[in-house]
Protein backbone atom coordinates (compact mmCIF):
# COMPACT_ATOMS: atom_id res chain seq x y z
CA UNK A 1 0.00 0.00 0.00
CA UNK A 2 1.38 3.38 -0.99
CA UNK A 3 2.11 5.45 2.12
CA UNK A 4 1.84 8.71 0.13
CA UNK A 5 -1.68 9.81 -0.85
CA UNK A 6 -0.78 13.16 -2.43
CA UNK A 7 2.06 15.53 -3.26
CA UNK A 8 1.86 19.32 -3.14
CA UNK A 9 4.82 20.88 -4.94
CA UNK A 10 6.63 17.58 -4.29
CA UNK A 11 5.81 17.70 -0.54
CA UNK A 12 4.19 14.34 0.32
CA UNK A 13 1.00 13.91 2.33
CA UNK A 14 1.15 10.58 4.16
CA UNK A 15 -1.65 8.08 4.52
CA UNK A 16 -1.35 8.36 8.31
CA UNK A 17 -1.98 12.13 8.07
CA UNK A 18 -5.06 11.48 5.96
CA UNK A 19 -6.31 8.72 8.28
CA UNK A 20 -5.92 10.94 11.37
CA UNK A 21 -7.70 13.84 9.67
CA UNK A 22 -10.53 11.56 8.56
CA UNK A 23 -11.08 10.41 12.15
CA UNK A 24 -11.38 14.03 13.29
CA UNK A 25 -14.00 14.91 10.68
CA UNK A 26 -15.87 11.63 11.15
CA UNK A 27 -16.37 12.42 14.84
CA UNK A 28 -17.24 16.07 14.12
CA UNK A 29 -19.78 15.32 11.39
CA UNK A 30 -21.19 11.91 12.33
CA UNK A 31 -20.12 11.33 15.97
CA UNK A 32 -18.66 7.99 14.86
CA UNK A 33 -15.19 6.67 14.01
CA UNK A 34 -14.48 6.17 10.31
CA UNK A 35 -14.81 2.40 10.66
CA UNK A 36 -18.51 2.76 11.59
CA UNK A 37 -19.45 4.98 8.63
CA UNK A 38 -21.19 3.83 5.45
CA UNK A 39 -19.08 3.59 2.25
CA UNK A 40 -20.65 6.83 0.95
CA UNK A 41 -19.91 8.63 4.23
CA UNK A 42 -16.32 7.35 4.20
CA UNK A 43 -15.89 8.61 0.63
CA UNK A 44 -17.27 12.03 1.61
CA UNK A 45 -15.00 12.24 4.66
CA UNK A 46 -11.94 11.17 2.67
CA UNK A 47 -12.51 13.82 -0.02
CA UNK A 48 -13.10 16.55 2.56
CA UNK A 49 -10.06 15.56 4.62
CA UNK A 50 -7.77 15.47 1.59
CA UNK A 51 -8.97 18.90 0.46
CA UNK A 52 -8.31 20.32 3.94
CA UNK A 53 -4.81 18.81 4.01
CA UNK A 54 -3.99 20.20 0.58
CA UNK A 55 -5.25 23.67 1.52
CA UNK A 56 -3.28 23.60 4.78
CA UNK A 57 -0.07 22.56 3.01
CA UNK A 58 -0.49 25.26 0.34
CA UNK A 59 -0.90 27.96 3.00
CA UNK A 60 2.03 26.54 5.00
CA UNK A 61 4.28 26.68 1.93
CA UNK A 62 3.17 30.24 1.22
CA UNK A 63 3.99 31.14 4.82
CA UNK A 64 7.48 29.65 4.60
CA UNK A 65 8.08 31.54 1.35
CA UNK A 66 7.31 34.79 3.19
CA UNK A 67 9.31 33.88 6.28
CA UNK A 68 6.25 33.37 8.49
CA UNK A 69 6.87 30.52 10.96
CA UNK A 70 5.40 29.87 14.39
CA UNK A 71 7.94 30.39 17.16
CA UNK A 72 9.09 27.38 19.14
CA UNK A 73 7.79 28.92 22.37
CA UNK A 74 4.29 29.15 20.87
CA UNK A 75 4.44 25.50 19.79
CA UNK A 76 5.48 24.38 23.27
CA UNK A 77 2.75 26.49 24.87
CA UNK A 78 0.12 24.93 22.63
CA UNK A 79 1.39 21.46 23.53
CA UNK A 80 1.22 22.33 27.24
CA UNK A 81 -2.42 23.37 26.85
CA UNK A 82 -3.27 20.07 25.18
CA UNK A 83 -1.32 17.97 27.68
CA UNK A 84 -3.19 19.73 30.52
CA UNK A 85 -6.37 17.96 29.35
CA UNK A 86 -4.85 14.60 30.27
CA UNK A 87 -4.11 12.93 33.55
CA UNK A 88 -0.38 13.16 32.89
CA UNK A 89 2.12 13.86 30.12
CA UNK A 90 2.71 10.12 29.90
CA UNK A 91 -1.01 9.50 29.25
CA UNK A 92 -0.97 12.17 26.54
CA UNK A 93 1.89 10.51 24.67
CA UNK A 94 0.31 7.09 25.13
CA UNK A 95 -2.78 8.46 23.38
CA UNK A 96 -0.61 9.79 20.55
CA UNK A 97 1.05 6.41 20.17
CA UNK A 98 -2.32 4.63 19.96
CA UNK A 99 -3.28 7.09 17.22
CA UNK A 100 -0.11 6.16 15.31
CA UNK A 101 1.63 9.51 15.87
CA UNK A 102 5.16 10.01 17.16
CA UNK A 103 5.94 13.01 19.43
CA UNK A 104 8.10 14.44 16.65
CA UNK A 105 5.30 14.18 14.08
CA UNK A 106 2.83 15.78 16.49
CA UNK A 107 5.25 18.63 17.22
CA UNK A 108 5.60 19.32 13.49
CA UNK A 109 1.82 19.19 13.07
CA UNK A 110 1.28 21.77 15.83
CA UNK A 111 3.95 24.04 14.33
CA UNK A 112 2.33 23.74 10.91
CA UNK A 113 -1.15 24.51 12.28
CA UNK A 114 0.09 27.58 14.17
CA UNK A 115 2.02 28.78 11.14
CA UNK A 116 -1.06 28.37 8.94
CA UNK A 117 -3.08 30.37 11.49
CA UNK A 118 -0.46 33.14 11.49
CA UNK A 119 -0.36 33.30 7.71
CA UNK A 120 -4.15 33.27 7.44
CA UNK A 121 -4.40 36.12 9.97
CA UNK A 122 -1.83 38.09 8.00
CA UNK A 123 -3.83 37.56 4.82
CA UNK A 124 -7.06 38.71 6.48
CA UNK A 125 -5.74 41.59 8.59
CA UNK A 126 -6.98 44.29 6.18
CA UNK A 127 -10.42 42.79 5.66
CA UNK A 128 -12.93 45.57 6.45
CA UNK A 129 -15.64 45.31 9.10
CA UNK A 130 -19.16 44.73 7.75
CA UNK A 131 -21.28 47.93 7.54
CA UNK A 132 -23.98 48.48 10.17
CA UNK A 133 -26.65 48.32 7.45
CA UNK A 134 -25.67 44.71 6.72
CA UNK A 135 -25.86 43.83 10.41
CA UNK A 136 -29.32 45.39 10.75
CA UNK A 137 -30.53 43.57 7.64
CA UNK A 138 -29.44 40.19 9.02
CA UNK A 139 -31.17 40.91 12.33
CA UNK A 140 -34.47 41.85 10.70
CA UNK A 141 -34.40 39.14 8.01
CA UNK A 142 -33.75 36.19 10.33
CA UNK A 143 -35.71 36.79 13.55
CA UNK A 144 -35.87 33.05 14.24
CA UNK A 145 -32.07 33.01 14.41
CA UNK A 146 -31.86 35.94 16.83
CA UNK A 147 -32.39 33.76 19.86
CA UNK A 148 -30.12 32.38 22.52
CA UNK A 149 -30.84 28.65 22.42
CA UNK A 150 -31.85 26.51 25.33
CA UNK A 151 -28.75 25.40 27.23
CA UNK A 152 -27.84 23.06 30.02
CA UNK A 153 -24.82 22.81 32.27
CA UNK A 154 -23.85 19.28 33.17
CA UNK A 155 -21.21 17.06 34.69
CA UNK A 156 -20.62 13.52 33.50
CA UNK A 157 -18.66 10.40 34.32
CA UNK A 158 -17.46 8.50 31.26
CA UNK A 159 -16.23 4.93 31.29
CA UNK A 160 -14.77 4.41 27.84
CA UNK A 161 -15.60 1.16 26.14
CA UNK A 162 -14.25 -0.28 22.91
CA UNK A 163 -16.08 -3.11 21.14
CA UNK A 164 -14.07 -5.77 22.95
CA UNK A 165 -14.65 -4.44 26.49
CA UNK A 166 -18.02 -2.67 26.48
CA UNK A 167 -19.56 -5.16 28.88
CA UNK A 168 -16.80 -4.57 31.44
CA UNK A 169 -17.16 -0.80 30.97
CA UNK A 170 -20.91 -1.03 31.64
CA UNK A 171 -20.35 -3.13 34.76
CA UNK A 172 -17.81 -0.64 36.05
CA UNK A 173 -20.20 2.29 35.56
CA UNK A 174 -23.09 0.37 37.13
CA UNK A 175 -20.93 -0.08 40.23
CA UNK A 176 -20.27 3.66 40.35
CA UNK A 177 -23.97 4.41 39.83
CA UNK A 178 -24.75 2.42 42.94
CA UNK A 179 -22.90 4.92 45.13
CA UNK A 180 -23.02 8.22 43.20
CA UNK A 181 -25.09 11.19 44.40
CA UNK A 182 -25.32 14.81 43.39
CA UNK A 183 -23.12 15.59 46.39
CA UNK A 184 -20.23 13.26 45.56
CA UNK A 185 -20.56 13.32 41.74
CA UNK A 186 -17.59 15.66 41.15
CA UNK A 187 -15.33 13.60 43.44
CA UNK A 188 -16.23 10.32 41.71
CA UNK A 189 -15.77 11.94 38.29
CA UNK A 190 -12.26 13.05 39.22
CA UNK A 191 -11.44 9.55 40.46
CA UNK A 192 -13.06 7.46 37.71
CA UNK A 193 -14.00 9.31 34.52
CA UNK A 194 -12.07 8.61 31.31
CA UNK A 195 -12.97 12.04 29.89
CA UNK A 196 -10.46 14.95 30.06
CA UNK A 197 -13.22 16.83 31.97
CA UNK A 198 -12.46 14.53 34.94
CA UNK A 199 -9.95 17.10 36.21
CA UNK A 200 -12.84 19.56 36.54
CA UNK A 201 -15.05 17.03 38.31
CA UNK A 202 -16.67 16.09 35.01
CA UNK A 203 -17.92 19.66 34.41
CA UNK A 204 -18.71 20.23 30.70
CA UNK A 205 -19.93 23.78 31.17
CA UNK A 206 -22.98 25.05 29.28
CA UNK A 207 -23.91 23.54 25.92
CA UNK A 208 -26.85 23.74 23.53
CA UNK A 209 -28.51 21.17 21.29
CA UNK A 210 -26.32 19.86 18.50
CA UNK A 211 -23.06 20.07 20.44
CA UNK A 212 -23.11 16.58 21.93
CA UNK A 213 -23.76 13.14 20.46
CA UNK A 214 -27.50 12.45 20.24
CA UNK A 215 -28.03 9.98 23.12
CA UNK A 216 -26.06 12.21 25.49
CA UNK A 217 -27.96 15.31 24.34
CA UNK A 218 -31.37 13.67 24.76
CA UNK A 219 -30.53 12.59 28.30
CA UNK A 220 -29.02 15.92 29.35
CA UNK A 221 -31.95 18.02 28.09
CA UNK A 222 -34.62 15.70 29.50
CA UNK A 223 -33.16 15.03 32.95
CA UNK A 224 -34.32 17.07 35.97
CA UNK A 225 -31.81 19.49 37.43
CA UNK A 226 -29.85 18.21 40.41
CA UNK A 227 -30.48 14.51 39.81
CA UNK A 228 -28.16 11.78 38.50
CA UNK A 229 -29.75 10.13 35.48
CA UNK A 230 -29.72 6.61 34.12
CA UNK A 231 -26.71 5.17 32.29
CA UNK A 232 -26.36 6.57 28.75
CA UNK A 233 -24.54 4.69 25.98
CA UNK A 234 -22.70 6.58 23.19
CA UNK A 235 -19.92 5.63 20.74
CA UNK A 236 -17.45 6.81 23.40
CA UNK A 237 -18.67 4.38 26.08
CA UNK A 238 -21.08 4.73 29.02
CA UNK A 239 -22.00 7.93 30.87
CA UNK A 240 -23.66 9.10 34.05
CA UNK A 241 -24.95 12.67 33.79
CA UNK A 242 -25.72 15.25 36.47
CA UNK A 243 -27.55 18.31 35.11
CA UNK A 244 -26.61 21.34 37.21
CA UNK A 245 -28.54 24.12 35.50
CA UNK A 246 -30.93 24.81 32.62
CA UNK A 247 -31.37 28.09 30.73
CA UNK A 248 -34.48 28.56 28.58
CA UNK A 249 -34.37 29.88 25.01
CA UNK A 250 -34.77 33.68 24.76
CA UNK A 251 -34.89 36.33 22.04
CA UNK A 252 -31.83 38.57 21.85
CA UNK A 253 -32.26 42.34 21.53
CA UNK A 254 -30.36 43.99 18.66
CA UNK A 255 -27.76 45.49 21.01
CA UNK A 256 -26.91 42.01 22.23
CA UNK A 257 -27.00 40.34 18.81
CA UNK A 258 -25.01 43.05 17.01
CA UNK A 259 -21.53 41.81 17.93
CA UNK A 260 -22.43 38.20 17.14
CA UNK A 261 -23.80 39.16 13.71
CA UNK A 262 -20.70 41.25 13.02
CA UNK A 263 -18.46 38.28 13.88
CA UNK A 264 -20.58 35.99 11.72
CA UNK A 265 -20.30 38.33 8.71
CA UNK A 266 -16.56 38.76 9.26
CA UNK A 267 -16.12 35.00 9.48
CA UNK A 268 -18.17 34.53 6.31
CA UNK A 269 -16.05 37.11 4.47
CA UNK A 270 -12.86 35.53 5.84
CA UNK A 271 -13.85 32.08 4.60
CA UNK A 272 -14.57 33.44 1.12
CA UNK A 273 -11.29 35.35 1.04
CA UNK A 274 -9.28 32.30 2.11
CA UNK A 275 -11.11 30.05 -0.37
CA UNK A 276 -10.28 32.53 -3.12
CA UNK A 277 -6.63 32.64 -2.03
CA UNK A 278 -6.30 28.86 -1.82
CA UNK A 279 -7.81 28.58 -5.30
CA UNK A 280 -5.10 30.94 -6.57
CA UNK A 281 -2.41 28.93 -4.77
CA UNK A 282 -3.78 25.71 -6.32
CA UNK A 283 -3.56 27.18 -9.82
CA UNK A 284 0.13 27.92 -9.31
CA UNK A 285 0.97 24.64 -7.56
CA UNK A 286 1.80 21.16 -8.76
CA UNK A 287 -0.68 18.85 -7.02
CA UNK A 288 -0.69 15.08 -7.47
CA UNK A 289 -3.33 12.88 -5.83
CA UNK A 290 -2.85 9.11 -5.76
CA UNK A 291 -5.62 6.53 -5.37
Structural features, described:
This protein folds into two domains: 4-127 and 268-289, Triger factor/SurA peptide-binding fold, CATH 1.10.4030.10; 147-250, Roll (Chitinase A, domain 3), CATH 3.10.50.40. It is built from ten helices and nine strands. It has helices at residues 15-30, 39-65, 72-83, 89-98, 103-124, 132-141, 166-177, 185-192, 214-222, 254-284; strands spanning 4-8, 11-14, 147-148, 151-160, 203-208, 232-234, 237-247, 250-251, 287-289. It starts with a strand and ends with a strand. The model has no long low-confidence stretch (mean pLDDT 91).
SSE layout:
Layout: E1 4-8, E2 11-14, H1 15-30, H2 39-65, H3 72-83, H4 89-98, H5 103-124, H6 132-141, E3 147-148, E4 151-160, H7 166-177, H8 185-192, E5 203-208, H9 214-222, E6 232-234, E7 237-247, E8 250-251, H10 254-284, E9 287-289
Antiparallel strand pairs: 1-2, 1-9, 3-8, 4-5, 4-7, 6-7
Following the backbone from N to C, one meets helices and strands in this order, namely EEHHHHHHEEHHEHEEEHE
Strand order of the largest sheet: 5-4-7-6
Q: By helix and strand content, what is the structural category?
A: alpha+beta
Instruction: Output the CATH class name of the largest domain.
Output: Mainly Alpha
> What is the CATH architecture assignment of the largest domain?
Orthogonal Bundle
Point out poorly predicted stretches: none
| Cα shape | globular
CATH fourth-tier homologous superfamily of the largest domain: Porin chaperone SurA, peptide-binding domain
Amino acid sequence: MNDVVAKINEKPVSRSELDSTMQVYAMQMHQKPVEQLTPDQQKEIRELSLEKLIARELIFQAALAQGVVAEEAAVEEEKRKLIANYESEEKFYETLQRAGMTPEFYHRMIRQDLTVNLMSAEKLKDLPDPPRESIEKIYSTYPDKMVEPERVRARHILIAGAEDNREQARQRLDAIKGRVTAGNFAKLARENSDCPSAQAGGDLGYFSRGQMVEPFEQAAFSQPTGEVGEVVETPYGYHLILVQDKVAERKMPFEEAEDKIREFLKEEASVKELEKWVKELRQEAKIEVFD
